[in-house]
Amino acid sequence: MVLVVTGGVGAAWLVSDAGGTVSVLALAHDVPRGHVLEPEDLVTARTTPDAALQVVPSDRLGDLIGQRAAVSLPAGSLLTPSSTTSAVVPGEGQSVVGISLSTAQMPATTLLTGDRVRIVSTPPTQAEPPGEAPDTVQGEVVDVASPDRAGSTTVDVLVPSLEAADLAARAATGRVALVLDSRVD
To answer: How far is CA 109 from the centre of its chain?
Structure first.
């Protein structure tokens, strides 16, 4: 037993001595997608270098201030090069529409930021299916909120600005469904 404990301590010492740790950037608190990073949003953390883990070194703090969170980032998560962006969403000619959906109005597959989707107009409850193809709006998932107490999930979708008002009006009636399109480019 003593040999096993001593061996474990020795192995831990060798790993920490041989690999050392590096100072990296992490989130001080939850940061929503699109938030402009400020110094108080970031903290330094130490981690053992790993070729499979791409992290942002703490000496790059100044480079990240003023950048936007590319995705929603939970407190304590380590920053990666793809965690931030200078892009503004929505960009020119685009709008973000929030659509509240029940589990029956969206796929059970977890939606990811960047997923291509179609928002389809649906008929009133218990009405006959449409005889023609329903109206659709193509978009891209920007963010997905956690389900509320009623089980509805709000999905923020990036759409062309010219289609945003019509989509928002249709979404407000609850007569839409979201279709996930191929993730293959």
So the answer is: 15
Number of residues in the chain:
185
SS3 121: strand
Cα dihedral 148→153→155→161 (10° resolution): -80
Q: Convert 134-166 to b/e letters by CB count within 10 Å (16 or more is b).
A: eebbebbbbbbeeeeeeebbebbbbbeeebbee
Q: 27-56: per-residue pLDDT in tens?
A: 999 988 788 999 999 999 999 988 888 899
pTM over 0.85: no
| Helix ranges, the chain (H) | 2-19, 61-64, 161-173
* Structure token digits, residue 123: 């008929």
Structure confidence at residue 13 (pLDDT): 42
Q: Is 34 left (phi over 0), alpha (psi -120 to 50) or beta?
A: left
